């Protein structure tokens, strides 16, 4: 394929990193934690499964992104509810397995971002190398999704959900577990994010990970705090506003990470990375963190 044609197709695909709208998860306050875990994990799993065919048939960048989001959400709920259910070994195994299988998808996404943001200004060997790297990353991602290991994870996850109630030492009400999980992540984000302006990149990364879990948790459990129990939170609800605020923090820190990762990828293919002023990203992150802290734990007053 001529280089010009190759570039046109790849840049078009690279621009399609747009998240799909997600159906709200509705939880009843009478559910136990394992019952709620089943509902959330299966919803996340369906989001992943819905993207398999588009990814395999067309190497669609948005399908890969949505699949990554589904896996991240699945891993987040396991992390959020692992402690209330006893911190068992099976939780650790599922979390580790999903992390390892998702790694090639993350690498492909990073290359999508590099091509999207810098492909038009690159020429010659650096462009060819960058596009080849991305094609190779997609090959690896598709191989993972087509593998026996991927199928085995789906089977084990289903068995895990079917048996978890009988294997945990305590199965508390989901309202108790949700409050505990959100409290813990809120404390982590509040404390770790207090020095964002002077923090190292590794410290900011930890804040971003905690913010991601806090945001997903607020979304997972939002119906528990709705005015009408058992219904999805209405637009503009405290849960939605809180999740949006945490999302702003997560996005600002994610933009910082993208700058660092893309710089590494460009250097890898022999291209000069442009100078990027990261101060606005840090300013956004600091402001978003302050907003999150100011909003406080809405869930504590919602159930009173």
Outline the secondary-structure elements:
Layout: H1 3-14, H2 33-49, H3 52-58, H4 61-82, H5 89-118, H6 124-145, H7 148-167, H8 174-192, H9 201-220, H10 238-268, H11 279-295, H12 298-302
Helix pairs in contact: 1-5, 2-4, 2-7, 2-8, 4-5, 4-9, 5-6, 5-7, 5-10, 8-9, 9-10, 10-11
What does this structure look like?
With about 300 residues, this protein is mainly alpha-helical. It has 2 domains: about 1-170, CHAD domain (Alpha solenoid); about 175-304. The chain is about 75% helix and about 0% strand. The chain is built from 12 helices and no strands. The chain has helices at about 5-15, 35-50, 50-60, 60-80, 90-120, 125-145, 150-165, 175-190, 200-220, 240-270, 280-295, 300. Helix 2 crosses helix 8 (about 175-190), helix 8 runs antiparallel to helix 9 and helix 9 packs antiparallel against helix 10 (about 240-270). It is globular, with a radius of gyration of 20 Å. It starts with a helix and ends with a helix. The relative contact order is 0.13. Residues about 1-20 have low confidence and may be disordered.
């Amino acid at each position: 394929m001529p280089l010009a044609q190759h570039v046109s197709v790849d840049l078009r695909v690279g621009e399609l990193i747009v998240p799909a709208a997600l159906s709200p998860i509705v939880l009843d306050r009478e559910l136990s934690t394992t019952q709620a875990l089943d509902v959330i994990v299966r919803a996340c799993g369906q989001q992943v499964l819905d993207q398999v065919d588009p990814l395999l048939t067309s190497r669609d960048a948005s399908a890969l992104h949505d699949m990554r989001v589904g896996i991240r959400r699945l891993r987040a709920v396991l992390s959020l509810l692992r402690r209330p259910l006893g911190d068992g070994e099976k939780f650790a195994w599922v979390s580790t397995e999903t992390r390892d299988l998702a790694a090639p998808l993350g690498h492909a996404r990073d290359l999508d971002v590099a091509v999207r943001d810098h492909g038009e200004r690159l020429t010659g060997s650096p462009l060819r190398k960058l596009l080849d790297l991305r094609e190779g990353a997609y090959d690896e991602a598709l191989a993972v999704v087509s593998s026996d290991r991927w199928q085995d994870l789906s089977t084990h996850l289903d068995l895990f959900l079917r048996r978890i109630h009988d294997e945990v030492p305590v199965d508390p009400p989901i309202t108790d577990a949700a409050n505990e999980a959100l409290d813990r992540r809120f404390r982590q984000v509040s404390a770790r994010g207090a020095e964002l302006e002077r923090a190292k990149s590794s410290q900011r990364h930890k804040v971003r990970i905690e913010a991601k879990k806090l945001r997903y948790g607020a979304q997972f459990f939002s119906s528990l705090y709705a005015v009408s129990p058992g219904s999805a939170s209405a637009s503009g609800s405290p849960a939605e506003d809180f999740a949006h605020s945490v999302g702003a923090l997560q996005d600002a820190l994610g933009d910082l990470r993208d700058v660092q990762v893309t710089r590494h990828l460009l250097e890898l293919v022999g291209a000069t990375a442009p100078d990027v002023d990261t101060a606005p990203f840090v300013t956004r992150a600091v402001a978003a963190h302050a907003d999150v802290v100011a909003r406080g734990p809405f869930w504590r007053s919602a159930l009173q």
